[in-house]
Design brief:
Number of helices: 38
CATH architecture of one domain: Up-down Bundle
Largest sheet: 12 strands, mixed
Radius of gyration: 37 Å
Strand content: 15-25%
CATH superfamily of one domain: Calcium-transporting ATPase, transmembrane domain
CATH topology of one domain: Calcium-transporting ATPase, transmembrane domain
Shape: elongated
Structural class: alpha+beta
Number of strands: 41
Helix content: 40-55%
């Protein structure tokens, strides 16, 4: 396709697509219409299934600027096609956009503003695109979240919009709502019924009806209706659930400021980017994304992050009024999230100046908001590419090929036997419907449904059942640390203060009289984001523990008090009465305690909230009666120390810090300084935090303890024994994370830890990685550390072929990880192979890590507590959220119990469901081939199976067996081997082919042997092979009436023989394929299956050895001599013995034989990580040596990779 006519939209993003322009062509449309009529509508169906063909068949190529229809193709590995109609919205010249700009909507039938009803669902349907005239490029419509500086938000957008501008932008951006339209039942029904499989079933039913197979046709119709109804119910239920979740607060009344300072009340659906929204005093649910420009808000963001802790949001720093300018920084919702109120989050309280309202500028609306993006990702998840499902299509294609052979054979055989043309058409098409089993989808779904039920019983809820099978393949699991591997809360272990630039001894009790007036305790009392909500102190758990430890009291000003003053009434903290020093005799004690609290209290004047990018928070406070204000700061020790006067930081700071972090403690540093007296209250409100946060005095360390959860070591040990690699992804400190990894057994005591410290290019120097070796053994005497001997010696990384000799792990932080991904593409896969600890990771970096691991062919599980893990949980093959909050909607699995013990349970159930899928596939393949061969043999004598024989086989045998053989529960423990990932594997194919040969052999034996019997003759109604007059009388009386009806020549000795032998064969292969250990419980523990098979065996044996006239009449079975019945029984018994012995042999020795047969040529591992592991074994430069540096030559690029040199 021409480069000029192909453009890319959303370039470099996850939803990147190629776009091609087309215009409708009348003569092509006429030709297609004629084709539709000639093919009886089949061409229309084909074009419905294939959007690319539909557009190309009815349209001609056009330049994108002039097109009416666009064809879109994703650029990911799935290369999916979508088509959409274009609706142009011409915009008149306006100051907001360039005169030649226009906007268009790329959407399909579900889109809010379009009347066209196109069939495709696209993830891009809720996005508006603008077309820039000179380049004819489509770009997603943006609000104020990109390319707008912080200065311009204050200067250009803080006054509000005029009514004219508001109306114009509403036309441009549309309605501010996140609508999840629940499709009508009729619409869903049409979409479901037009599924290729149901069309095939409809074709089968029509064919059987013309051939008078009414009973079987009716049975298939009933099965299809049940399947369609259940599918419609579950799809509609999910839509309604999501609709209710989104619509709960979709429309509220909001107040907005207009340019002339008047306040207008409008519906939230009318909000547009640039509106200035007034946040009400009593809080609200945010209907859009907005940035605070005035006041402070306390917000519950559990809807987005899963974290129920209230977050304090402050106004965006205004560079123009800062004493020390920050430069013209661009506003970004990610970077400035501490100043951004996100859609769907709940504002609990607001703080404000007198006479000034709490205001926020709307930056994004509708589906562009953070909540809109979450909803869109749930509605249109990225398809999961799993080998099993790809192989299933190949399997169906093989069956279609087999059916094609049967089709040709039937036509030739019928022509040679001079059969009527009508019969030839029906019988040749009938063989296709026999080969592709109509019960296959129901059979495949059964195992997954049963696994879903078992998971629900153990408290694991699943919103994406197809993922259960994929979980059976997991060979690597990423764990979040805090709240997942360790306890949720932190306990205060102690403090270590600094005096005269030297560390004092650690102190356990902070709540004492000596320290009550110290700057250290004052910092603990003021430097936090705690607030009182309905009288209860709430906020970050760490801040809560710290504040509780000192035993102080927090008091907040009421709205009435704030209104009386001309400045913000500060939040006040003061010590409890009993804490203040007793400096007077006992007689005056009461008086002293009464007076002192009034004297000693601290007001928090300004708060700079915690920023994960800066890794610190600070406050400006003033002790009652003091002239000068104090600045207090707390945060990551390395960051705090760098902002303090070097002479106040102890010389042994790094050593003390390392000792604590190695033991797994969470360490926070405190600092303080007196501010200049010229700083007034109002100046402080507008000052930049950079002015405050420097030149501080280092005060010491707070040491917090994060205990391992009791079950963590045992669960990780189980995973290691099962050769499932474990990785830690955390936002915590690197050394703390390494320590916890050692404690829980993720890193063994004797293993080496290599820290990769990557530095981005700077001052003309290229990016580089410094390699440091961490201490191999920790001095930790933590009781939760497990005995290393309990862990198998086999290394966790070597999840396959004992490839590793050296045991080493890589650890890195989020910054290093980003640099490596960007500048060291060649190194990234190698680091993925041994990376165990990823610390200080931001939410998007967690997602990138999951993708990087998937790129080297790992099947990745992710277990997190829902906070900041949403993206990673969605991206992983199996994401398990330990949060019961709404954020877990984005995760395929949610565990009711907040414990990682759900991970092995999920993998066990996944493996069981996967093995069930293989068993069902193999059984359905054999069922198709056995029935296909039975019919082919009978066609050779111009016979067929009877209507009720088909019915008995398909309903009584196949459906019962399929639905009961899927009931085997999972094996009680995880084993080291994994089930195969696809159907196309040597052992599995050998198993199926050997069973096909056995079944065909024994069926052919019966078919040809019956003809050699002395009593055999071509059957006719007067035949008396049984030599019983009574029987003859019954046969004659019954069959004389049916002779004219038996036009298909159903009743004959060959039919009866083939029917009995094949009926037993279905049950034999069901038993042979019902695998138990090591992934499922043995089949004899599946009582429903055992009982069903026994009943069927007894019934078939009974009608074979002891004929019942009425049953023979219904099944159209003829009477055969007793010795032939015994002979058939012997054939069946030998068949059973051979089938089961061959299947057992394949299980036991199949893999060994195959590997021996393939041993002559060196097999290259399919998985990239295995291939890499083999390469690294012989690489003398790997792992990197201690204290070396690896540099990237960014300028020399070959095939998109960087050349790497190592400098020692």
């Amino acid at each position: 396709m021409d480069k000029e006519e192909r453009k890319t939209i959303n370039q470099g993003q996850e939803d990147e697509m190629e776009i091609y322009g087309y215009n409708l062509c009348r003569w092509k449309l006429a030709v297609v219409s004629l084709g539709v009529v000639c093919t009886g509508g089949f061409l229309l169906l084909l074009l419905y299934w294939m959007p690319e063909w539909r557009v190309k068949a009815t349209c001609i190529r056009a330049a994108i600027r002039d097109c009416e229809v666009v064809l879109l193709r994703t650029t990911d590995e799935f290369r999916m096609w979508f088509c959409a109609k274009i609706r142009f919205l011409s915009l008149e010249t306006h100051p907001f956009l360039s005169p030649k700009s226009m906007t268009n909507k790329v959407a399909n039938g579900h889109a809010v503003h379009l009347s066209e009803n196109l069939a495709e669902e696209t993830r891009h349907e809720m996005s508006k695109y603008s077309q820039t005239q000179p380049q004819q490029e489509y770009r997603k419509m943006r609000g104020l979240d990109e390319g707008v500086s912080c200065t311009s938000i204050y200067e250009k957008h803080s006054a509000g919009l005029t009514k004219g501008m508001h109306a114009y932008r509403k036309l441009l951006y549309g309605v501010n709502e996140i609508t999840v339209k629940v499709p009508s039942v009729f619409k869903l029904l049409i979409k479901e019924v037009l599924n290729p499989f149901y069309i095939f079933q409809l074709f089968s039913v029509i064919l059987w009806s013309t051939d008078e197979y009414y009973y079987y046709a009716l049975a298939i119709v009933i099965m299809s209706i049940v399947s369609i109804v259940s599918s419609l119910y579950s799809i509609r239920k999910q839509y309604i659930m999501l609709h209710d979740m989104v619509a709960a607060h979709s429309t509220v009344r909001v107040s907005v400021c207009r340019v002339n300072e008047e306040i207008e009340e409008i519906f939230s659906t009318d909000l547009v980017p640039g509106d200035v929204m007034v946040i009400p005093l009593n809080g609200t649910v945010m209907p859009c994304d907005a940035v605070l420009i005035n006041g402070t808000c306390i917000v519950n963001e559990s809807m987005l992050t899963g974290e129920s802790v209230p977050v304090t949001k402050t106004n965006l720093p205004n560079p123009s009024v800062d004493i020390k300018g920050m430069g013209d920084e661009f506003y970004s919702p990610e970077i400035h999230k501490r100043h951004t109120l996100f859609c769907g989050t709940t504002v609990i309280q607001t703080r404000f100046y007198t006479g000034e309202l709490v205001k926020a500028v709307v930056v994004r609306t509708g589906f562009s908001t953070s909540k809109g993006q979450l909803v869109r990702s749930i509605l249109y998840p990225k398809p999961t590419d799993f080998k099993l499902y790809r192989d299933a299509y190949l399997f169906l294609l093989c069956l279609v090929a087999v059916a094609g052979i049967g089709f040709i054979y039937t036509i030739i055989n019928s022509i040679l036997n001079k059969v009527e043309i009508g019969v030839i058409i029906i019988e040749s098409l009938d063989i296709i419907t026999i080969t592709v089993p109509p019960a296959l989808p129901a059979a495949m779904t059964a195992g997954i449904v049963y696994a879903q039920r078992r998971l629900k019983k153990i408290g694991i809820f699943c919103i994406s059942p197809q993922r259960i099978n994929i979980c059976g393949q997991l060979n690597l699991v990423c764990f979040d640390k805090t709240g997942t591997l360790t306890e949720d809360g932190l306990d205060l272990w102690g403090i270590q203060r600094v005096e005269n630039t030297r560390f004092l001894l650690p102190e356990e009790n902070v709540c004492n009289e000596i320290l009550v007036k110290s700057q250290f305790v004052a910092c603990m009392a003021t430097c936090h984001s705690l607030t009182k909500i309905e009288g209860v102190l709430s906020g970050d758990p760490l801040d809560l523990k710290m504040f509780e430890a000192i035993g102080w009291i927090l008091e907040e000003a009421t709205e009435e008090e704030t209104a009386l003053h001309n400045r913000i009434m500060p939040t006040v903290v003061r010590p409890a009465k009993q804490l203040l020093p007793e400096s007077t005799p006992a007689g005056n004690q009461e008086m002293e305690l009464f007076e002192l609290p009034a004297i000693y209290e601290i007001g928090i004047v300004r708060q700079f909230p915690f920023s994960s990018a800066l890794q610190r928070m600070s406050v400006v406070a003033r002790v009652l009666g003091d002239k000068k204000m104090d600045a207090y700061m707390k945060g990551a020790p390395e960051v705090i120390a760098s902002l303090c006067k070097p002479e106040t930081v102890p010389v042994d700071f790094e050593k003390v810090l390392e000792d604590y972090t190695k033991q797994g403690f969470r360490v926070i540093a405190l600092a303080h300084r007196k501010l200049e007296s010229k700083l007034t209250w109002h100046k402080v409100q507008n000052i930049s935090r950079d002015v405050i946060e420097n030149n501080m005095d280092f005060m010491g360390l707070i040491v917090m303890q994060n205990k391992l959860k009791q079950e963590t070591p045992a669960v990780l040990e189980d995973l290691h024994k099962a050769n499932i690699r474990t990785v830690m992804v955390t936002g915590d400190n690197m050394l703390t994370a390494v320590s916890v990894a050692r404690d829980c057994g993720m890193i063994l005591p004797q293993d080496k830890v290599i820290i990769a410290e990557a530095l981005p290019p700077k001052d003309g120097k290229v990016a580089k990685i410094n390699w440091h070796y961490a201490d191999t053994l920790t001095q930790c005497s933590n009781s939760s550390a497990i005995d290393s001997e309990a862990i198998p010696i086999k290394l966790v990384h070597d999840s396959l072929e004992d490839l590793q000799v050296t045991r080493y792990h890589f650890a890195m932080n989020g910054k290093s990880f980003s640099v490596i991904l960007e500048h060291f593409q060649d190194l990234a896969p190698k680091l993925m192979l041994h990376g165990t600890v990823f610390a200080r990771m931001a939410p998007d970096q967690k997602t990138q890590l999951i993708e990087a691991l998937q790129n080297v062919d790992y099947f990745v599980g992710m277990c997190g507590d829902g906070a900041n893990d949403c993206g990673a949980l969605k991206r992983a093959h199996g994401g398990i959220s330990l949060s019961e909050l709404e954020a877990s909607v984005a995760s395929p699995f949610t565990s009711k119990t907040p414990s990682i013990s759900c991970v092995p349970n999920l993998i066990r159930e996944g493996r069981a469901a996967l093995m069930t899928s293989f068993c069902v596939f193999k059984f359905m393949a054999l069922y198709s081939i056995i029935q296909y061969f039975s019919v082919t043999l009978l066609y050779s004598i111009l016979s067929n199976l009877g209507d009720f024989q088909f019915l008995f086989i398909d309903l009584a045998i196949i459906l019962v067996v399929v639905f009961t053989m899927s009931l085997n529960p999972a094996w009680k423990e995880l084993v080291a081997q994994r089930p195969p990932s696809g159907l196309i594997s040597g052992a599995l194919l050998f198993s199926v082919l050997s069973q096909i040969i056995i079944c065909i052999g024994f069926q052919s034996l019966g078919f040809f042997w019956v003809k050699q019997q002395p009593w055999y003759e071509v059957w006719h109604p007067q035949s008396d092979a049984c030599n019983t007059t009574g029987s003859l009388y019954w046969n004659s009386s019954h069959l004389y009436n049916e002779t004219d009806l038996d036009t298909h020549n159903i009743q004959n000795y060959e039919n009866t023989t083939v029917f009995f032998i094949s009926s037993f064969q279905y049950l034999i292969v069901a038993i042979a394929f019902s695998k138990g250990k090591p992934f499922r419980q043995p089949c004899y523990k599946n009582y429903f299956f055992v009982v069903s098979v026994i009943i069927l065996y007894v019934f078939i044996l009974l009608i074979m050895l002891h004929p019942v006239a009425s049953i023979d009449q219904v099944l159209q079975i003829v009477c055969v001599p007793y010795q032939w019945r015994i002979t058939m029984l012997m054939i069946v018994l030998v068949n059973a013995l051979v089938s089961i012995m061959v299947e057992e042999s394949v299980d036991r020795w199949g893999k060994c034989c195959l590997s021996w047969a393939l041993g002559c040529r060196k097999k290259i591992p399919k998985a990239k990580y295995m291939y890499l592991a083999q390469e690294l074994l012989v690489d003398p430069e790997w792992p990197p040596k201690p204290q070396t540096t690896t540099e990237a030559k960014a300028l020399v690029k070959e095939n998109g990779s960087c050349q790497i040199i190592t400098i020692t």
